[in-house]
C-alpha cells in the first residue's frame, strides 16, 4: 500500500491565509528539501568581504527561518516547489545581495534542472553586476564550486557545462530580451526599475519549467507609480491576508507607519541583521546625520527603515503639511468656496500640459498666514488612462468635485477661461464673481494665450508674468515652505493638493536659490507651483527662516 503523504505543515509556517489555503489544496512541507539548501550554503559557499571573509556561509536566523526554509520547503501535491515567486523587501546592508547570490548558485548547481538558465536583473549594468560579482567571488573562494563552474567575466556569465546550464547578469537599460527560458530569475532593487517593459517580458519566461523561481529582493523606493511599489503592495496584501495567493511568498522587514524613526527598537524591528551585519554605532551615526535635513531623513527612512517615501529629494515634511489642515478642513470644494466667498485674493495659473492636469490656485491672505483654494482641470482621456494604469485617484477626485473633467484628449482652455470669468451665454458666474481676485501670476511659457484672453476680459492689470526660474521662484518658494513649517498655510485638506505636495522635490543653484523641480518630481506638482506663484504675488510672508537657511543645507 502506498504511503500517504503528510499534507500538514509546522504551525510556525502557517503564517498567512494563503498558507492555510495551500494546505487545504494539498500542499505540504518537505523539511529535507529545505535542509538541503542550507547545507549547500554551509558546505559550498564562502563569504568574500568584511569580517566574515572566507568563512562558511551559515545562514542567519532570519535568512533561514523567514526565507529559505519556507521558500524551498513548501511543496505542491506533485512534489514541485509551491512558490513560483518570492517578494523580499528589506533595508540595505542586511545581507540581501549575498543571500540572492547564494540562491542563484543553488538554482544553477543543485536544483536538478537540466539546461537551467539563471538570470539576475537590475536597473542598470552596475547594479546588475553587484549580485553577479558576489556570486563570482563565492565561486572563486570555493574549491567545490570552482572545479565545477566556469566564470566568463566578459559575458557576465557562469557556466555549468555538466548540465548545459548557465547563470547570467542582465540589466534593464539594454533592449528588452525575448525568448528567455529561465529556471531562476532574481530582481535586485526592483524599486529602481523605471520602465516595466523588461519586467513584464521576463516574468512569464519560466512558464515551461517545472518549478521556476522568480525572486525579487529590494529596498523601498519613492515612486508609487512604479512596478516596485506594485509588487511591494502585493507582498503586503499576502501578509495581511487580503490576497490568498498560494504561489507567491512574501517577506517584508520595515518600520511601522506609527513607529518612532529615532528609536533603536524601531531600527531593530526593521533590520533583522541589526547588531550582526549592521553595526549599531554606525547606525546611530547615520541617524544623527539624517536629522540635519528633510532629504537626509528621507534617505534614512528608505534605506535604513525600508519605508516608501513621497519624494527622492524631499522638500516638505508631510506631517507639517497635514498639520496645516488640522483645524481648517472642508469636505468639498463648494464648502471651501462658501467659506471664502467675497474675500480678496491673488491667483497663480500653471498650465503645465494640454494632456494632463492644469491648476489655478487662489491665495487668501490672513493676519498670520494664507488660505489656498485650488482648482484643477484634466482632459477625459488622461483621467481614464491613469485609472487604467492604476495610478492616482483622478476618477475618485473627479466624482468628488475636486477636479473638473473636460471632454476629449486635451484640456479645454476655453473651459478654464469660462470657469474663471463666467459663461455669459449660459448665465453661469465665474470665480471673479465669487471672489475679489486682485491679480494672477502666470508663466508666459505655457499660459500666455489664456492670460491674454483674461486680460482682454478683465483688464490689463488682471495678469502678471511670473517666470519659473530661480529669480522669480526663489523667494516665494522659501516663503511657502516657512508657512507650511509654521502651520500657517491652510490648504483646507484638499486631497489633490496634498498628493502634489508629496510629489515635490526642489533644486538649487550655487547661490542657494530654490525652486520646485518638475524634472525631479515623481508626478504632477502643478497645484503647488501655482500656489507658490499666488503666495508670491500676494506678498504674504512666512515669518520663520527656512530649514535650508537655518541649517545651511544645499539641496541638489
Task: Explain what the structure shows.
With 556 residues, this protein is α/β, with parallel strands linked by helices. It has three domains: 13-252, Rossmann fold, CATH 3.40.50.300; 264-303, no CATH class; 318-551, Nucleotidyltransferase, domain 5. Helix content is 39%, strand content 16%. It is built from 22 helices and 19 strands. The strands form four sheets. The chain has an eight-stranded mixed sheet with strand order 5-6-7-4-8-9-3-10, with helices on both faces. The chain is elongated and about 85 Å long. The protein starts with 16 loop residues before the first helix and ends in a 5-residue tail after the last helix. The model is unreliable at 1-5 and 545-556 (pLDDT under 50).
Topology readout:
Blueprint lengths: L16 H8 L3 E2 L1 H14 L16 H13 E2 L9 E5 L6 H14 L7 E6 L2 H17 L1 H4 L3 E3 L4 E4 L4 E7 L12 E5 L8 H6 L10 E6 L8 H13 L8 E5 L11 H7 L9 H11 L3 H10 L14 H6 L9 H8 L3 E7 L7 E8 L4 E10 H9 L5 H7 L3 E3 L6 H9 L9 H4 L1 E7 L1 H15 L4 E3 L4 H17 L2 E2 L4 H9 L2 E3 L5 E3 L9 H13 L8 H5 L5
Parallel strand pairs: 3-9, 3-10, 4-7, 4-8, 8-9, 11-15, 13-14, 13-17, 15-16
Antiparallel strand pairs: 1-2, 5-6, 6-7, 11-12, 12-13, 18-19
